[in-house]
Structures are given as C-alpha cells and as structure tokens.
Hints:
alpha+beta, four-stranded antiparallel beta sheet
Amino acid sequence: MTMLLSVHDIEVAYGTIPALHGVTLEVEQGKIVTLIGANGAGKTTTLRTISGLLKPRKGEVMFNGHNITGVKPHVITARGISHVPEGRGIFANLTVSDNLELGAYLRKDKVTQKEYDRIFSLFPVLKERMKQNAGTLSGGEQQMLAI
C-alpha cells in the first residue's frame, strides 16, 4: 500500500510550553486512522500541525511523498489536506449549496454532479436542504456541511 500521510517524531510547543513530544503516525492510502485521547492529549495540536497551522520544532510531516513541514496552510489545502475542526465553521447566512461551492474555492473547475452524488450518498439530508440557509440547519447537519 502507498503511504499517504506520515508524521515522524514531531515536537510542538505553544511558546515555551511543550504540547507534543515524539508523535509519529502513518496513514496508508485507503485506510482510516483515528486519534483518540483525553482532553489535552494533543489530538487537535497534531491535526493543526499536519494542516500547517502550527510549525513543529522538530520532526516532519510527509504527504504523498512530499515534505509539507512548515508549508503554509493554504498550500497544504491546495494539495488535498482538509482540516474540519469541531465548531461547524460554515457560512450561516449562505445556503447549503453556496457553502458546498465555497468548499471548492481553490479549484479552477466547478464541482461535478458525480461529486455532489458522493456528498449526498454520505449526507442525504444535505440534498434536501440545498436551498436552505446553513445557519438554520441542526448542529449535526451543520457539522455534515462543514465536513
């Protein structure tokens, strides 16, 4: 199997306060990996580091064979890594349809029907709510839209 994502021995701190020490993980293409731990264990810090929102003091993050350690977040997003944090970061005053289109803003082409079909197979309720303002969705529906 091809290694899609590799995090090797990363260390991250917030100022002088260490947050991660020696975190290593690998994700093979087609596999699902979860980060599980107590509050404060470093799950969000690990994801923020992979996304480029934090720069590790030590270690490296590899994606599709390329070192993305320290690469700016918008470049990492353009390469295909998305980080959907808890908190439903949607555009509440826009429709579900508008939010889905904005999710592809870095792309030069339009979202295809095949992609919409995939989204709606995962989250059928979004198809029913395409013209609805995103802020009127339930909390769970908003999180589906954010994903």
